């Protein structure tokens, strides 16, 4: 059961890593989604259709090339087994009620592997064409970055974040055309890189909309520091490693723990892939392999496309306990860690999806790049259920459903100097006392404290 639920913990759940013992991610469970209590688009509200669609693409990938009838029968069988799993009770609680929405796709992988391969840990490769097309292009773009001789860390990190757009049209969440970096298996990677280079540079040179670079530099470049880095997509990892190598060269006393997935998950880099990239001839020539020779590669990272603090392996939990700061790539893992990890937490991404727009509170029209830091136990955003009641207007006239508290609002409150705005914020937050879910209550209280502290600071200044 632990392997099917992607639970690698050998203890009561890595409680020493939590900012508070009762922490739960500020999201929703599979059980809540199946019960229809979550605000979602109509197309995602039918639980059986949602689960069937989640299964079908994975079944097709495992059976490929498969005939339609065999795939349909296999999907039906896997769906029956998945529903049995979700209703199964562990210590009196249904699996669906203890499984977070972000975890389900990887649990589906394990069900499909068990049903169709007879091995719960068999890899379920769903994006083979994406990897085959995007990674060579990423290396071709990396060689152009190296040829440019640019070693500025801030710019290299921006390149890393922007590289997540390479081949994004081959993933489920497709960015707007104005920021897409499309690839094609039928075209030589060097030629594609040449076509994308100008756009890639333009995106990488933009300032961060949310910019906590100075804090990151202070947390990693000064003296003996321990940074734990969680990787995300395959092409991003190529640029991550270049950035981390240059970071290690500037601070030889820094200890790096590299955390890929332990199994292939969706489009995320796994441990065997990371080893191959580190040893790649391009990386050797660039000095990346040597610079990272002392870095610790965690071979027992998460086996799902997100990560749950309570389900991390003991080895990874010990590394996190010793860390000075943590950087997570990918918004899904950020959603699961924020507010709960008892460490300074960084994340970076290009804002392209409507879902992330709801939590960020920023307009995704121009795909801004974000670099965010928050302290131990701090929530960047919270209250997903607020999307049912709150909306903002985007520059293009779209109505964006937003959380009870967005990243934009949180950051503004921390720096607010207008007493009238603070009073309005306090009134709004007070109005949520009996409306927020129980798991958002701690985040609401923390947000109220921010407003109170800002109001006290203004009064004391006068």
What's the helical proportion of residues? 40-55%
The number of E-state strands comes to 11
Number of helical elements: 19
Mean pLDDT, nearest integer? 93
Q: Structural class of the secondary structure composition? A: alpha/beta
SSE order in H/E notation?
HHHEEHHHHHEHEHEHHHEHEHEHEEEHHH
Sheet of most strands: 7 strands, mixed
Assembly level:
single chain
Shape: globular
Which strand order does the major sheet show? 3-9-8-7-4-5-6
What does the radius of gyration come to?
Answer: 22 Å
Low-confidence stretches: none
Strand content: 5-15%
**Termini separation:** 60 Å
What does this structure look like?
- This protein is an alpha/beta fold and 462 residues long.
- Helices cover 46% and strands 9% of the residues.
- The protein is built from 19 helices and 11 strands.
- The strands form 3 sheets. It has a 7-stranded mixed sheet, sandwiched between helices. It has a two-stranded antiparallel sheet with strand order 1-2.
- Strand 10 and strand 11 form a beta hairpin.
- Helix 7 crosses helix 8 and helix 17 packs parallel to helix 19.
- The longest helix has 21 residues.
- The radius of gyration is 22 Å and the shape is globular.
For the structure shown, list the relevant keywords:
46% helix, seven-stranded mixed beta sheet, alpha/beta, two-stranded antiparallel sheet, 11 strands, 462 residues
């Amino acid at each position: 059961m632990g392997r099917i639920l992607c639970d690698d913990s050998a203890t009561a759940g890595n409680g020493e890593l939590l900012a508070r013992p009762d922490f739960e991610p500020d999201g929703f469970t599979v059980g809540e989604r199946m019960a229809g209590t979550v605000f979602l688009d109509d197309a995602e509200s039918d639980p059986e259709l949602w689960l069937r669609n989640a299964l079908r693409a994975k079944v097709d990938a495992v059976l490929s090339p498969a005939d339609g009838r065999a795939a349909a029968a296999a999907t039906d069988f896997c769906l029956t087994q998945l529903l049995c799993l979700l209703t199964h009770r562990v210590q009196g609680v249904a699996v669906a009620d203890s499984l977070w929405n972000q975890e389900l796709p990887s649990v589906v992988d394990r069900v499909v592997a068990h049903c169709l391969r007879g091995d719960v840990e068999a890899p379920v490769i769903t994006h083979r064409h994406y990897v085959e097309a995007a990674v060579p292009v990423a290396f071709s773009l990396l060689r152009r970055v190296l040829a440019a001789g640019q070693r500025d860390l801030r710019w290299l990190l921006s390149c890393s974040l922007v590289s997540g757009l390479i081949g994004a049209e081959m993933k489920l969440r497709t960015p707007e055309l104005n920021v897409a970096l499309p690839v094609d298996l039928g075209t030589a990677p060097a030629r594609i890189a040449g076509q994308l280079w100008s756009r890639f540079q333009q995106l990488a040179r933009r300032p961060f909309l949310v910019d906590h670079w100075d804090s990151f530099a202070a947390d990693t470049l000064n003296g003996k520091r321990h940074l734990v880095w969680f990787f995300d997509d395959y092409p991003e990892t190529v640029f991550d490693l270049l950035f981390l190598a240059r970071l290690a060269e500037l601070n030889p006393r820094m200890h790096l723990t590299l955390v890929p997935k332990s199994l292939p998950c969706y489009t995320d880099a796994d441990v065997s892939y990371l080893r191959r990239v580190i040893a790649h001839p391009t990386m050797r020539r660039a000095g990346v392999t040597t610079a990272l020779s002392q870095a610790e590669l965690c071979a027992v990272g998460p086996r799902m496309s997100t990560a749950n603090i309570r389900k991390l392996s003991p080895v990874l939990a010990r590394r996190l306990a010793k860390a000075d700061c943590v950087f997570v790539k990918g918004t899904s893992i950020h959603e699961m860690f924020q507010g709960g990890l008892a460490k300074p937490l960084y994340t970076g991404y290009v804002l392209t999806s409507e879902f992330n727009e709801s939590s960020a509170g920023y307009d995704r029209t121009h795909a801004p790049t974000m670099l965010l830091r928050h302290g131990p136990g701090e929530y960047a955003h919270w209250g997903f259920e607020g999307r049912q009641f709150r909306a903002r207007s985007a520059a293009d006239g779209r109505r964006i459903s937003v959380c009870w508290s967005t990243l934009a609002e949180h950051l503004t409150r921390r720096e607010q100097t207008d007493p009238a705005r603070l009073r309005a914020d306090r009134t709004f937050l007070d109005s949520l006392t009996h409306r927020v879910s129980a798991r958002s209550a701690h985040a609401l209280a923390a947000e109220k404290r921010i407003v109170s502290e800002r109001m006290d600071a203004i009064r004391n200044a006068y």
